[in-house]
Amino acid sequence: MNHDVKQLRSMLRAHDPASDVRAESDLTAQAQRITAAFRPQPLPRRRIWKPAVSAVALGTVITVAALGVIAWPRPAEALDFTRSGKDYIVTVKDVYAAPEQYAEEFRARGLPVTLELEPVSPSLVGKVVGGQGTSVERPTPQIEPIPDPNCPAFEDPCTVKLKIPADLAGPASVTLGRPAREGENYTTTGEISAPGEVLHCVPYMGMTVGRLRGELAKRGMGIDSFRVGPKREVRPDVPDAWWPSDVGLLGRTKVVIWAGPQQAEASPWYRDAQAGCPDGG
User: Fold this and answer.
1) Is 249 helix (H, G, I), strand (E, B) or coil?
2) For residue range 135-180, what is the model confidence (pLDDT) as tens digits?
3) 3-15 and 24-38 are packed helices; what angle lies between their axes, rounded to 10 degrees?
4) Contact, 200 vs 141, CB < 8 A?
5) Where does the sequence pass through the membrane (predicted)?
């Protein structure tokens, strides 16, 4: 029997005039009622909501709460594969995707191809700038780039496509040119007078160095240095009255100029690049 009940029962017996005739069970029941009235009551149970399975979309994240699993949706496909006879025509839909994503999509089709895209100057966008087992190698080309007639372009990126044999056996790696992001430098540059480049249709071979400075400045380009003489001596500057014999890109905003005191004859590649220009270069 509880100690508190026994103690209270003794007190009731001492102060009850009829305790000598009251049944022991009555005193015990009365003591129990009194102690029950003052006993601390338990707090109500708080209900905690635990869903069996909760799928909540937050942006692109899907959370399964009950299992403690976060399932990330697969990224959009970076490559598009179209079968053409014995070949795949592969279009690069996302030229900024990670190489690991390209590799995963090639593996899904059993193609042992490693693809990378590097920032290049406009005339090289969509073209092969490196790799192994590609058409830039001879004599057994396996992977061929498909030129986009709209390339190069300053504003809109070119469509980058490849033709790959569906039964390609050996591993091949391909590095293609892509448009550079804002503030991103070029890893490879094309000929500065080629279509799409900064001096295309600019007849710089007929300009003095001083005039060429102005044309470059209008296009946001600066001069890094000059190359002079047969030993290509590096100079920080030359007289404005000198003549350029060649201009090379050095990243997005700088050029190197080969120059001398005499006007040089235009090279065949310069004439080819200027052939479609209004004044013919």
Assistant:
1) strand
2) 444 434 578 888 777 665 444 456 778 999 998 887 888 898 888 8
3) 120
4) no
5) 52-72
- Rg of the chain (C-alpha set): 41
User: What residues does each domain of the chain span?
Assistant: 79-178, 204-274
3-class SS at 266? coil
Q: Which two tokens stand for residue 244?
A: 């350029």
Residue 268 makes CB contacts below 8 A (sequence gap 6+) with none
**What's the pLDDT tens digit per position in 190-212?**
889 888 899 999 999 999 999 99
DSSP for 14-83 reads: HH-TTTTTS-HHHHHHHHHHHHHHHSPPPPPPPP----S--EEEETTEEEETTTTEEEPPPPPPSEEEEE
Which one, of 115, 120, 95, lies nearest residue 105 by Cα? 115
Please tell me whether residue 116 adopts helix, strand or coil conformation.
Answer: strand
Q: Do the Cβ atoms of 145 and 126 come closer than 8 Å?
A: yes
172 Cα distance to chain centroid: 23
Q: Is 193 buried (19+), middle (13-18) or exposed (0-12) by CB count in 10 A?
A: buried
Percent of the chain clearing pLDDT 70 (strictly above):
66
